[in-house]
Amino acid sequence: MDKSDKIRPTKDEDGIDRSGFLECMTWAGTGVLWALAGGLPQAMGLSTALAAETPAAPFTFLQISDSHVGFSKPANPDALATLREAITRIKELPKKPSFMIHTGDISHLSKDIEFDNADQLIKEAGIPVFYVPGEHDLLDDGQGKSYLDRYGKGSKGAGWYSFDQQGVHYIGLVNVVNLKAGGLGNLGADQLQWLQDDVAGLSAETPIVVFAHIPLWTVYPDWGWGTSDGAQALALLKRFGSVTVLNGHIHQVMQKIEGNIAFHTARSTAFPQPEPGKAPSPGPMKVPAGDLRKYLGIATVDFVRGGEPLAIIDKPLAG
Amino acid sequence: MTFISFGISRMAWMASPVLVGLLLVAAPQLAAAATSEVTVKIANFTFSPADLTITPGTTVTWVNNDDIPHAVVETEKTFRSKALDTDDKFSFTFTNPGEFSYFCSLHPHMTGKITVKK
Ligand SMILES: [Cu+2]
Fold it and tell me: What number does CATH give the domain A24-315?
């Protein structure tokens, strides 16, 4: 598909077009954008999107992920420096996002100094931040106590919670604790029960945004890229017209749309990982120093009431 | 030539009468510190050897050769390492016979097994 292409499927009577959701997945060099309008996806290349006259969005939020502060191996000798670049980009955004979601692996080894350095920098963005932990954030002696002390206020269990912002219901899930040998990410019975209760009173028209570290859909089980009971969580959200799932962990952009659920993973701000199965292991991808910033980045999400598109634009640190 | 395993040193023993004498003299001391050592390498998100059989008293040392931290956790919590950064090591001495399945708590698709047999 040409990068100037745009897809606007026709609506069914209920306003939801269920055909061809996956037909358009446009990669336009530096980024990709897709939009979800009441379950109606639109996809276009980033250059088209940036040039298009979009109605003023009442609010935007931002996703960053996998900052791995403390990481210093090839191809990134200083993960704090690339996080700083990401934060600088955020500060330069023409429209200040309402808040930021960090989908985990804030730190590399859960050291206090790593959390401190990350906090110090992220604070500079000047917007509220909502966190979920990655497996690298639970490596302290208390196996997650540090994380909960810092980021877990008001959360349940290992750090899950929900909140509402301008008519959208956000759910932060934790799928990196009590992992079982040979298994994938895991939510557990307690969290699933909580989720069921959490969404019980919501009308099906409420847009839902779910975020968690490991993808809730199965990306590549051989590398543990999936969540064993993720399908049970998604089943609880089936009745909603618009569900957006934001994940990290795999350090690359990946997306798909299934029914009314749109999945999206964000880039890391620290180091890239290979495409599924394209390397002997999911270890850090060693890219030439000059290319590193093409593989790192942030994602902004526009939510426009009325037209209701939920548009995610991934922005690499360098084109 | 280094004899780190007692199974191997016994074979050398039979082959060399001179060595037998030496070893017999040293025997009481060595028996008290009866250890042999085996290394399990962690590389490319894999334990190798993933399946290992040892005798009681053997110390197994895991070494992380990856650029990403791993951890070694026994399924029944018999042992649990901290996160091992690059080149970090973790050792555990197996005194009792049995089967010990373990995995990486960060990347649970990484699994291994130690069988301790007399
Ligand atoms: Cu691991």
Answer: 3.60.21.10
User: pLDDT tens-digit profile of A218-265?
Assistant: 999 999 999 999 999 999 999 999 899 999 999 999 988 888 898 999
Could you tell me which chain B residue has the CA closest to the CA of A75?
A: B67
Q: Is A68 left (phi over 0), alpha (psi -120 to 50) or beta?
A: left
CATH number of the domain enclosing B64? 2.60.40.420
Q: What is the mean pLDDT of each run of 10 residues along chain B (118 residues)?
A: 36 39 41 72 97 97 97 96 97 97 96 96
Domain hosting residue B105, numbered range: 37-116
Same-domain status, B47 and B23: no
Q: Looking at this predicted complex, what is its ipTM?
A: 0.78
Residues of B in contact with A181 (CB under 8 A): 75, 101-103, 108, 111
List, as ranges, residues 149-208 from A with C-beta within 8 Å of B.
179-184
**Chain A partners within 8 Å of B102 (Cβ):** 181
Ligand 1 geometric centre to CA of B41 (Å): 12
A182·B68 Cβ contact <8 A: no
Picking from A183, A222, A281, the nearest residue to B108 by CB comes out as: A183
In 3D space, the residue among A172, A198, A177 whose CA is nearest the CA of residue A187 turns out to be A177
Task: For the beta carbon of residue A158, count every other beta carbon within 10 angstroms.
Answer: 23
CB contact under 8 A, B107 and A224: yes
Q: What are the Cα distances from residue A301, in Å, to A118, A154, A296, A309, B69?
A: 22, 25, 17, 10, 32
Task: Give the global pTM.
Answer: 0.80
What does the pLDDT read at residue A270? 95
Q: Do residue B21 and residue B63 come from a single domain?
A: no
